[in-house]
Amino acid sequence: MSYDTETLIALDREYVWHPFTPMKAWVEKADPLVIARGEGIYLYDTTGRRYIDGSASIWCNVHGHAVPVIDAAITAQLQQVAHTSLLGLANIPSTLLAKRLIDLAPAGLRKVFYSDNGSTAVEVACKMAYQFWQNQGQRQRTRFLAFDWAYHGDTLGAVSLGGIPLFHQAFKNLCFPVDLVAPPICWSCRDHQPGAACCGRTLTQLEALLQKSPDAYAALIVEPLVQGAGGMLMAPPGFLRAVRDVCRRYDVLLIADEVMTGFGRTGTMFACEQEDVCPDFMCLSKGLTAGYMPLGATLTTQRVYDAFYADPKELKTFFHGHTFTGHPLACAAALASLDLFEQNQLLSHVQAMAPIMAEELAQARGMPHVADVRTCGLIGAIELMADPAEKQPFPYHWRIGGELCTALRSKGVLLRPLADVVVIMPPLAINENDLRYLCRVAVESIVQIPHLIERKMQES
In the chain, is it the N or the C terminus that has fewer CB atoms within a 10 Å radius of its CB? Predict the structure, then answer.
């Protein structure tokens, strides 16, 4: 049975509740696209129109859509078994993938615990870190450290660790207390230079908390190099290494949330590699399966694992798991994706494309209403403000970033902003011509802002 586009849109509006979406605006004002298929870096809607997937289907697509090697790997696994539990059983793809991940990860990570997505990968690390100290008899170590404007997922443990008021404030009474440290990017001065004062301020604040209560903290969580949903905030070089050193001095476990930054997005397989950091936990998802299927993984050290390795009567078991943990189809997709990283020399490709993205997006600097332009690997961000000189944002409900991204559909480009930060994050396999086009139309769209402001003021 087939449905025309208008019928599908009507059914969607009637029955589907979309994530992070003001539904009144969606139902009454939005002009939805219905995606029918994908091929390479492109998505096609039900009318046949083609779009560059400029947000990599929310930061997870690696090699493009409908990749024959990954399709074949999933099909081959489907002919064996689609799903079998890891509770009391093993399966072939999850076993082979665990070995592959440990071979790729920073030296010191030795064990893999699977889950379903990025939020649950963080949840696993959070609970493991807490129970690690309980199993060691240090029951006073119950608090966590995190960074303001961080985002680690939507399960309650991950929300507790988050620092974005718009996303997290409504649920704070359900969450455990976390000590938030200012991020290493000053929200008011936007000073991103190496050794910036705001980086020193962050480390000083962190050290002060640990000096005051050295035995209170179980773990600190960080998004290495880039705080994603907070607006693609880039940390100064050396910051991650400094955080690792502080955590080691106070014997606080370090959780690296590489859900967004992992699998080549910053130019190396994992962002932690760039500062020679091995965390106590590394949380992975998104690019793990090249964006094909939900899968999360939490990697940890032998030290952490050994704290749970005990006779059942000691009750030190990690009582946590998911129905689809180590899902065979998802693990097969991940293995095929890692093969393609090698075959296509994808990391070298990203390193070649990164300066091209930086060059193209730099054209936005100095344009009216552009407060900042940031890049790291194939992550690009153009931050928009009503008055950049005074750091005055646009009214949130004006949705200037969203309006620009919606208008870009007429140029054959799909982007999704973070409020008024236009994020450019295509599949890693994008070629130079498509990357330049994507960046240029994003920059050119900024000239529409005065017209949008005029319209918004008339509507107010």
Answer: N
